Amino acid sequence: MRKTLSLVALGVSATLISGCGSSVTPTAPPDDAAKAVTITNCGRQVTVNGVPKAAVGLSPSQTELLVRLGLVGSLVGQAQTATAPLPQDVAGMAANVPVLSESGPPSREKLLNVRPDFVYSPTTYEFTAEQGFASLDQLQQAGVAAYVAAGGCRERRMSGTVEDLFIDLENLGRIFAVPDKARVMIEQGRADLAAVDKAVAGRAKPTVAQVFLEGTTVTAIGAGIEYDIIRRAGGSNVFSPQDPQFAKFFAAQITPEALAAKNPDAIVFAVNGPAHKQATVDYLTRTFPEMTAVRTQRLIAIDAADTYPGTLGNISVVREIAQGLYPDAFRS
């Protein structure tokens, strides 16, 4: 299991997609500079003058996407490497990319020291100047183009969807002049989602509570990409963006009694590793012995990193959850 950032960082701010591993081939940056590309990202205009030659992935998810697009030769840095290990087929290719930070975003000095011309982040949190990180304005002043995963934009954090990843891939294809590679990944992702849609179509939807446990503190998820992941997996979430507690934030602390009252058919819970998974199962089993999800053992653990904005895990975890909700639908 991967380790991941805290739920607070996620807010502020299973298998890989089939076929992706075999498509990782380095792409040499074009010798001639491409025309300037301007895209709208998080409500601002981002202009990239020519194909970037010194990119930084500010989290493993973003580093992975750049490598899978064949751009490892353009990477001058990777960050937050301890939050989620890169897949094996990608890790080897990125082994020589300098590590700028392990548990959190790199400081402004460390980031600018590698002289990037393009920085790719999962959320706006990585650009919080108060935390000592380079802000979007500071990067712009330094001539660095900064791109935030579509689902990690502040205005999208409450309403983001799994398909926001396709916006990122399309934009990266334009920025790095690799539209064909991006198109292949988009088509594969859409095919994987369509396969889940077909498998669960016409079946009665089980009710699902999505939670995150820290000790005995229960946090429910009721909006954002996480909410859409449950929807795409064929679940009927017992919490929703229409609930008052999720009016301004995609997650909210709830009492054990509030969760028990929902009596979901299944519980999906994000974990940071094996110990966290076992602790969560133990708590749920001990606290809710009469809950339907506990009695029927429909407790579905997912890697917390797969719910992070702009990651291929957003797609693979849909199938993972669907398999837990509809095991018969995926038996060959």
Automatic annotation (TrEMBL):
Endpoints of the signal sequence: 1-18
A UniProt-annotated Pfam family: Peripla_BP_2
Membrane-spanning residues: none
Domain Fe/B12 periplasmic-binding: 54-329
Keyword Cell inner membrane: no
Superkingdom of origin: Bacteria
Keywords attached to this entry: Signal
Keyword Signal (UniProt): yes
Listed InterPro entries: ABC_Transporter_SBP, ABC_transptr_periplasmic_BD
Family: Belongs to the bacterial solute-binding protein 8 family.
Protein name from the UniProt record: Iron complex transport system substrate-binding protein
Organism: Kibdelosporangium aridum
